[in-house]
């Protein structure tokens, strides 16, 4: 049965995807005490990237912002896989966004806003977090964006 967080996703017209299987030797999320750390989540939909390339070249900043939102949804799915219930999230502590950037692109914060705004819309005040938005030369599978999330859970 879906809880309040998943009901909010539905209200926003979104559904929690299946956890994206690892591309290498790692877990999608790991719990340590009251914290869940996700691995970097790519904007995978149904097992594949819809868009590849560099932001500011083949991918527009607006497209990349939407892709960051997809990454955040995938991160929530990874959190649920180890927490059992998204309603256990006490708060999002930190978001790190990586943006595969053309050499002259400097709008990484605006791209990663896609993830931050989704977490805020879904979790309200619990979604407010510290954040880094980093431009990189290339990401796995030529993905334009990758997002990792750290959340604190309410003690069970």
Number of helices: 3
Radius of gyration: 15 Å
Strand content: 25-35%
What string gives the helices and strands in order?
HEEEEHEHEE
Intertermini distance: 18 Å
**Spatial order of strands in the largest sheet:** 1-2-7-5-6
Contiguous uncertain segments of 5+ residues: none
Structural category is alpha+beta
- Biggest beta-sheet profile: 5 strands, mixed
Describe the global form: globular
The overall average pLDDT, rounded, is 96
Q: Please report the total strand number as a whole number.
A: 7
> In which range does the helix fraction lie?
25-40%
Describe this structure in words.
The strands form 2 sheets. The chain has a 5-stranded mixed sheet, covered by helices on one side. It has a two-stranded antiparallel sheet with strand order 3-4. The model has no long low-confidence stretch (mean pLDDT 96). The chain is an alpha+beta fold and 156 residues long. The chain is globular and about 45 Å long. Helices cover 30% and strands 26% of the residues. The longest helix has 23 residues, at 61-83. α2 crosses α3 (108-123).
Note the topology:
Elements: H1 4-11, E1 29-32, E2 35-38, E3 44-45, E4 48-49, H2 61-83, E5 89-100, H3 108-123, E6 130-136, E7 145-153
Parallel strand pairs: 5-6
Antiparallel strand pairs: 1-2, 2-7, 3-4, 5-7
Helix pairs in contact: 2-3
Gist of the model:
The chain has 156 residues and is an alpha+beta fold. It is built from three helices and seven strands; from the N terminus they run H-E-E-E-E-H-E-H-E-E. The longest helix has 23 residues, at 61-83.
Write out key terms for the chains shown.
30% helix; 5-stranded mixed β-sheet; alpha+beta; 3 helices; 26% strand; 7 strands; single chain; 156 residues; two-stranded antiparallel sheet
């Amino acid at each position: 049965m879906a809880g309040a967080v998943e009901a909010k996703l539905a209200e926003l017209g979104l559904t929690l995807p299946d956890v994206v299987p690892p591309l290498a030797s790692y877990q999608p999320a790991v719990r340590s005490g009251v914290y869940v750390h996700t691995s970097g989540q790519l904007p995978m939909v149904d097992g594949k990237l819809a868009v590849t390339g560099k932001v500011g070249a083949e991918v527009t900043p607006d497209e990349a912002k939407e892709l960051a939102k997809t990454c955040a949804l995938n991160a929530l799915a990874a959190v649920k896989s180890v927490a059992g219930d998204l309603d256990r999230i006490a708060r999002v502590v930190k978001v790190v966004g990586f943006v595969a950037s053309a050499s002259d692109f400097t709008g990484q914060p605006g791209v990663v806003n896609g993830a931050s705004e989704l977490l805020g819309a879904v979790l309200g005040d619990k979604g407010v977090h510290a954040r880094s938005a980093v431009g990189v030369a290339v990401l796995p599978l030529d993905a334009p964006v990758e997002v990792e999330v750290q959340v604190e859970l309410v003690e069970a």
